[in-house]
Amino acid sequence: MELDKNINYIVSGLERSGTSLLMQILHAGSIPCAFDESRKPDNNNPKGYYELEGGKIINKLMDGTFPLDKYKGIFIKITAYGLKFLPPGKYVILYSERNIEEILDSMEKMAKIKDINREETKNAFIRLNNMIKIHIKDRSDIDCMFVNYNKILTNPEISIKKIHEYLGMPKEYLDEMMGVINKRLYRQRRIL
Amino acid sequence: MTEEKKFTTISIPTPLAEKIKKRIKGTGFTSLSSYVTYVLREVISGVEEEREEAFSKDDEKRVKDRLKSLGYLE
Fold first, then answer.
1. Does ipTM come in above 0.90?
2. Integer Cα distance of A10 and A61 in angstroms
């Protein structure tokens, strides 16, 4: 399937909010996705991170050196904070959200830390998430769809169909996209 | 002196209006307009509430520190 080559397509959300899973789903649906092997799969993301430059493209967006033009018509992953630095353009963003406690659990596990100021960290990420959501909804050069990681795993059919419809994809790819959902990945589930 | 107009007219699709009429039957809403006004006020106050909780410099420092520990920022 081809995407519009005048548009930058982005998968986003807070880190550990399910952005890699979204990229996997899109990739399985034969949607053009760009990623490299700079960060290898590990216990935190057994199926890979599906990101560019080990996820460190935020710095390049901040100083204006990330080559967005090169990735038009291709999905790339830029986590939430990076969206603050997107230059004017034409964007389609799939923005993933997840239970904040699960996000923090997963971050602590990945960073191998025990956050003694967890409540403050939680509030900072909630406010970042709110700010970025308002920012992308307000910008006239961004079209966005919000998806929920927890709902994708508990009810993949409905969630993936919505993504599928949003991108105007041919029906034959739906099964491949659905096949990605591996409930074993859902190790840190909490009751919402 | 002309009195300032206190109401204005907004068009919504007829099928939506019909749905709303059905929905408000038996509720305290006396008209389509009163229901739509209520919903819009709720939406606007929600958006304003969201905007009030600003992302502060302290928040940004905390987020950046965490992103560095996760390898997303240098």
1. no
2. 13
